[in-house]
Amino acid sequence: MRLGVNIDHIAVLREARKINDPDPLDALGIVKRAGADQITIHLREDRRHINDWDAKRVVENSPLPVNIECSIDDEIIDIICRLKPHRATLVPEKREEVTTEGGLDVIKNFDKIVQVTQKLKESEIDVSYFIDPHFEIVAAAADAGADMVELHTGEFANIFAMLYTNLPHTPHSIKELELPRAQLKEMLSRAIGDLENSAIYSAKAGLLVAAGHGLNYQNVEVITKIPNLEELNIGQSIVAASVWEGLESAVRRMKELIDG
Ligand code: PXP
Protein backbone atom coordinates (compact mmCIF):
# COMPACT_ATOMS: atom_id res chain seq x y z
CA MET A 1 0.00 0.00 0.00
CA ARG A 2 1.39 3.40 -1.00
CA LEU A 3 1.86 6.23 1.48
CA GLY A 4 1.32 9.82 0.39
CA VAL A 5 2.65 12.33 2.90
CA ASN A 6 0.74 15.59 3.11
CA ILE A 7 3.34 18.29 3.79
CA ASP A 8 0.93 21.27 4.11
CA HIS A 9 1.53 21.56 7.83
CA ILE A 10 5.18 22.43 7.28
CA ALA A 11 3.89 25.49 5.42
CA VAL A 12 1.37 26.10 8.25
CA LEU A 13 4.32 26.48 10.63
CA ARG A 14 6.08 28.84 8.22
CA GLU A 15 2.95 30.96 7.82
CA ALA A 16 2.68 31.32 11.61
CA ARG A 17 5.68 33.68 11.28
CA LYS A 18 5.25 34.73 7.63
CA ILE A 19 8.91 34.05 6.89
CA ASN A 20 10.68 31.48 4.71
CA ASP A 21 11.35 28.81 7.29
CA PRO A 22 10.53 25.91 7.46
CA ASP A 23 10.40 25.42 3.70
CA PRO A 24 8.14 22.51 2.62
CA LEU A 25 10.58 21.89 -0.23
CA ASP A 26 13.12 20.60 2.29
CA ALA A 27 10.71 17.77 3.16
CA LEU A 28 10.80 16.19 -0.30
CA GLY A 29 14.09 14.31 -0.02
CA ILE A 30 13.45 13.31 3.60
CA VAL A 31 10.00 11.89 2.81
CA LYS A 32 11.42 9.87 -0.08
CA ARG A 33 14.38 8.62 1.98
CA ALA A 34 11.95 7.45 4.68
CA GLY A 35 10.16 5.21 2.18
CA ALA A 36 7.01 7.15 1.28
CA ASP A 37 5.62 6.90 -2.22
CA GLN A 38 4.00 10.26 -2.90
CA ILE A 39 4.00 13.92 -1.91
CA THR A 40 0.57 15.42 -1.29
CA ILE A 41 -0.16 19.14 -1.02
CA HIS A 42 -3.37 21.16 -0.91
CA LEU A 43 -3.39 24.43 -2.84
CA ARG A 44 -6.28 26.12 -1.03
CA GLU A 45 -8.17 29.04 -2.52
CA ASP A 46 -7.16 31.19 0.47
CA ARG A 47 -3.47 30.03 0.20
CA ARG A 48 -3.39 29.67 3.98
CA HIS A 49 -0.40 27.29 3.84
CA ILE A 50 0.87 26.04 0.47
CA ASN A 51 1.09 28.93 -2.02
CA ASP A 52 1.55 28.98 -5.80
CA TRP A 53 5.32 29.29 -5.47
CA ASP A 54 5.48 26.22 -3.18
CA ALA A 55 3.27 24.21 -5.53
CA LYS A 56 5.44 25.06 -8.55
CA ARG A 57 8.68 24.19 -6.75
CA VAL A 58 7.23 20.97 -5.33
CA VAL A 59 6.05 19.74 -8.75
CA GLU A 60 9.35 20.71 -10.39
CA ASN A 61 11.61 19.20 -7.73
CA SER A 62 9.77 16.27 -6.17
CA PRO A 63 11.55 12.93 -6.53
CA LEU A 64 8.13 11.31 -5.91
CA PRO A 65 4.81 11.67 -7.79
CA VAL A 66 2.88 14.75 -6.62
CA ASN A 67 -0.82 14.69 -5.72
CA ILE A 68 -2.38 18.16 -5.45
CA GLU A 69 -5.66 18.47 -3.55
CA CYS A 70 -7.76 21.32 -4.88
CA SER A 71 -11.28 22.69 -5.16
CA ILE A 72 -13.25 22.74 -8.41
CA ASP A 73 -12.86 26.53 -8.70
CA ASP A 74 -11.95 27.56 -12.29
CA GLU A 75 -8.95 29.69 -11.34
CA ILE A 76 -7.45 26.89 -9.22
CA ILE A 77 -8.06 24.28 -11.91
CA ASP A 78 -6.28 26.49 -14.50
CA ILE A 79 -3.27 26.68 -12.18
CA ILE A 80 -3.26 22.89 -11.68
CA CYS A 81 -3.46 22.32 -15.45
CA ARG A 82 -0.39 24.52 -15.91
CA LEU A 83 1.51 22.83 -13.05
CA LYS A 84 0.82 19.32 -14.37
CA PRO A 85 1.23 17.27 -11.17
CA HIS A 86 0.87 13.51 -11.39
CA ARG A 87 -2.63 13.71 -9.90
CA ALA A 88 -5.29 16.19 -8.79
CA THR A 89 -7.62 15.22 -5.95
CA LEU A 90 -10.81 17.27 -6.02
CA VAL A 91 -11.98 18.26 -2.55
CA PRO A 92 -14.78 20.46 -1.22
CA GLU A 93 -13.50 23.69 0.25
CA LYS A 94 -15.00 26.18 2.69
CA ARG A 95 -13.10 29.29 3.77
CA GLU A 96 -14.18 28.96 7.40
CA GLU A 97 -13.17 25.29 7.85
CA VAL A 98 -9.94 24.33 9.62
CA THR A 99 -9.48 21.26 7.44
CA THR A 100 -11.46 19.45 4.72
CA GLU A 101 -14.57 18.56 6.67
CA GLY A 102 -16.50 16.26 4.39
CA GLY A 103 -16.31 14.63 1.00
CA LEU A 104 -17.01 16.19 -2.38
CA ASP A 105 -20.72 16.19 -3.22
CA VAL A 106 -20.32 14.57 -6.64
CA ILE A 107 -24.09 14.24 -7.08
CA LYS A 108 -24.94 17.89 -6.47
CA ASN A 109 -21.99 19.26 -8.48
CA PHE A 110 -22.03 16.54 -11.13
CA ASP A 111 -21.91 18.67 -14.32
CA LYS A 112 -19.17 20.96 -13.01
CA ILE A 113 -17.12 17.99 -11.82
CA VAL A 114 -17.43 16.26 -15.22
CA GLN A 115 -16.19 19.45 -16.91
CA VAL A 116 -13.26 19.89 -14.50
CA THR A 117 -12.32 16.21 -14.79
CA GLN A 118 -12.19 16.41 -18.58
CA LYS A 119 -10.06 19.55 -18.43
CA LEU A 120 -7.55 17.94 -16.05
CA LYS A 121 -7.37 14.78 -18.15
CA GLU A 122 -6.71 16.84 -21.29
CA SER A 123 -3.67 18.13 -19.39
CA GLU A 124 -2.66 14.51 -18.73
CA ILE A 125 -3.35 14.71 -15.00
CA ASP A 126 -4.95 11.73 -13.22
CA VAL A 127 -8.08 12.68 -11.31
CA SER A 128 -9.22 11.52 -7.88
CA TYR A 129 -12.22 12.68 -5.84
CA PHE A 130 -12.16 12.91 -2.04
CA ILE A 131 -15.56 11.45 -1.12
CA ASP A 132 -17.57 10.24 1.83
CA PRO A 133 -17.83 6.43 1.83
CA HIS A 134 -21.32 6.08 0.36
CA PHE A 135 -22.46 3.83 -2.45
CA GLU A 136 -24.33 6.58 -4.41
CA ILE A 137 -21.34 8.92 -4.34
CA VAL A 138 -18.99 6.20 -5.57
CA ALA A 139 -21.43 5.48 -8.42
CA ALA A 140 -21.56 9.19 -9.33
CA ALA A 141 -17.73 9.38 -9.20
CA ALA A 142 -17.43 6.50 -11.67
CA ASP A 143 -19.99 8.16 -13.97
CA ALA A 144 -18.20 11.52 -13.78
CA GLY A 145 -14.96 10.00 -15.08
CA ALA A 146 -12.73 9.80 -11.99
CA ASP A 147 -9.68 7.54 -12.14
CA MET A 148 -9.59 7.14 -8.37
CA VAL A 149 -11.56 7.91 -5.23
CA GLU A 150 -10.05 8.81 -1.88
CA LEU A 151 -12.41 7.68 0.87
CA HIS A 152 -12.80 10.14 3.75
CA THR A 153 -11.77 8.38 6.97
CA GLY A 154 -12.57 11.36 9.23
CA GLU A 155 -15.69 9.86 10.79
CA PHE A 156 -13.91 6.57 11.46
CA ALA A 157 -10.95 8.43 13.04
CA ASN A 158 -13.26 10.50 15.18
CA ILE A 159 -15.17 7.54 16.60
CA PHE A 160 -11.94 5.54 17.05
CA ALA A 161 -10.45 8.39 19.10
CA MET A 162 -13.57 8.64 21.27
CA LEU A 163 -13.48 4.92 21.99
CA TYR A 164 -9.80 4.32 22.52
CA THR A 165 -8.26 7.61 23.62
CA ASN A 166 -11.29 9.24 25.26
CA LEU A 167 -10.58 12.32 23.21
CA PRO A 168 -12.65 13.45 20.24
CA HIS A 169 -10.77 13.81 16.98
CA THR A 170 -12.62 17.09 16.44
CA PRO A 171 -14.07 19.37 19.11
CA HIS A 172 -17.49 19.14 17.42
CA SER A 173 -18.00 15.67 18.79
CA ILE A 174 -17.48 16.34 22.49
CA LYS A 175 -21.15 15.58 23.18
CA GLU A 176 -20.68 12.12 21.73
CA LEU A 177 -18.06 11.33 24.36
CA GLU A 178 -20.96 10.77 26.69
CA LEU A 179 -22.36 7.98 24.53
CA PRO A 180 -22.20 4.45 25.97
CA ARG A 181 -19.20 2.46 24.76
CA ALA A 182 -21.45 -0.19 23.19
CA GLN A 183 -23.04 2.49 21.04
CA LEU A 184 -19.64 3.93 20.05
CA LYS A 185 -18.47 0.42 19.11
CA GLU A 186 -21.53 0.00 16.91
CA MET A 187 -20.83 3.38 15.30
CA LEU A 188 -17.22 2.35 14.67
CA SER A 189 -18.27 -0.96 13.02
CA ARG A 190 -20.70 0.96 10.83
CA ALA A 191 -18.01 3.49 9.81
CA ILE A 192 -15.58 0.65 8.96
CA GLY A 193 -18.33 -1.22 7.10
CA ASP A 194 -19.09 1.89 5.01
CA LEU A 195 -15.40 2.19 4.10
CA GLU A 196 -15.15 -1.52 3.23
CA ASN A 197 -18.31 -1.55 1.11
CA SER A 198 -17.33 1.65 -0.68
CA ALA A 199 -13.84 0.30 -1.40
CA ILE A 200 -15.27 -2.95 -2.81
CA TYR A 201 -17.84 -1.11 -4.88
CA SER A 202 -15.25 1.42 -6.17
CA ALA A 203 -12.93 -1.34 -7.34
CA LYS A 204 -15.84 -3.09 -9.09
CA ALA A 205 -16.64 0.20 -10.83
CA GLY A 206 -13.05 0.31 -12.12
CA LEU A 207 -11.82 3.01 -9.75
CA LEU A 208 -8.52 2.97 -7.89
CA VAL A 209 -9.06 3.40 -4.15
CA ALA A 210 -7.23 5.60 -1.65
CA ALA A 211 -8.20 6.76 1.84
CA GLY A 212 -7.23 9.54 4.20
CA HIS A 213 -7.98 12.05 6.92
CA GLY A 214 -7.35 11.72 10.63
CA LEU A 215 -5.14 8.63 10.30
CA ASN A 216 -2.42 8.15 12.88
CA TYR A 217 -0.15 5.52 14.47
CA GLN A 218 -3.03 4.19 16.59
CA ASN A 219 -5.80 3.81 14.03
CA VAL A 220 -4.00 3.15 10.75
CA GLU A 221 -3.77 -0.62 11.18
CA VAL A 222 -7.57 -1.00 11.04
CA ILE A 223 -7.65 0.94 7.78
CA THR A 224 -4.92 -1.18 6.17
CA LYS A 225 -7.31 -4.18 6.41
CA ILE A 226 -9.86 -2.55 4.09
CA PRO A 227 -9.97 -4.44 0.77
CA ASN A 228 -8.72 -2.86 -2.48
CA LEU A 229 -7.02 0.08 -0.79
CA GLU A 230 -3.95 1.12 -2.75
CA GLU A 231 -2.93 4.32 -1.01
CA LEU A 232 -3.22 6.35 2.18
CA ASN A 233 -2.65 10.11 2.40
CA ILE A 234 -1.57 11.24 5.86
CA GLY A 235 -0.51 14.69 7.05
CA GLN A 236 -1.34 16.05 10.50
CA SER A 237 -0.27 13.07 12.60
CA ILE A 238 3.03 12.61 10.74
CA VAL A 239 3.98 16.27 11.01
CA ALA A 240 2.85 16.30 14.67
CA ALA A 241 5.00 13.22 15.44
CA SER A 242 7.94 14.77 13.62
CA VAL A 243 8.10 17.51 16.27
CA TRP A 244 9.16 14.79 18.72
CA GLU A 245 10.98 12.25 16.60
CA GLY A 246 11.88 14.04 13.34
CA LEU A 247 10.16 13.83 9.95
CA GLU A 248 12.20 10.94 8.61
CA SER A 249 11.49 8.76 11.64
CA ALA A 250 7.77 9.67 11.64
CA VAL A 251 7.33 8.81 7.95
CA ARG A 252 9.34 5.59 8.31
CA ARG A 253 7.30 4.49 11.33
CA MET A 254 4.02 5.17 9.55
CA LYS A 255 5.20 3.29 6.46
CA GLU A 256 6.21 0.31 8.61
CA LEU A 257 2.77 0.27 10.27
CA ILE A 258 1.09 0.37 6.87
CA ASP A 259 3.29 -2.43 5.54
CA GLY A 260 2.44 -4.46 8.67
N1 PXP B 1 -6.56 13.54 2.12
C1 PXP B 1 -7.25 14.68 1.86
C2 PXP B 1 -8.05 14.74 0.60
C3 PXP B 1 -7.19 15.79 2.73
O1 PXP B 1 -7.89 16.90 2.45
C4 PXP B 1 -6.39 15.69 3.88
C5 PXP B 1 -6.29 16.87 4.81
O2 PXP B 1 -5.57 17.89 4.20
C6 PXP B 1 -5.67 14.51 4.10
C7 PXP B 1 -5.80 13.45 3.22
C8 PXP B 1 -4.75 14.35 5.27
O3 PXP B 1 -5.48 14.40 6.46
P1 PXP B 1 -4.71 14.47 7.85
O4 PXP B 1 -3.93 15.76 7.84
O5 PXP B 1 -5.79 14.45 8.87
O6 PXP B 1 -3.81 13.28 7.91
Structural features, described:
This protein starts with a strand and ends with a helix. The radius of gyration is 18 Å and the shape is globular. 47% of the residues lie in helices and 16% in strands. The protein has helices at residues 8-17, 27-33, 52-61, 74-83, 110-122, 135-144, 154-164, 181-204, 220-224, 236-245, 247-259, and strands at residues 2-6, 38-42, 66-70, 87-90, 126-131, 148-152, 208-212, 229-234. An 8-stranded parallel barrel has the order 1-2-3-4-5-6-7-8, surrounded by 8 helices. The mean pLDDT is 94. The protein has one domain: Aldolase class I (TIM Barrel, Alpha-Beta Barrel), CATH 3.20.20.70. It contains 11 helices and 8 strands. It has 260 residues and is an alpha/beta fold. Helix 2 runs parallel beside helix 11, helix 6 packs parallel to helix 8 (181-204) and helix 7 runs antiparallel to helix 8 (181-204). Residues 6, 8, 42, 69, 89, 91, 99-100, 130, 150, 212-215, 233-237 line the site of pyridoxine-5'-phosphate (PXP).
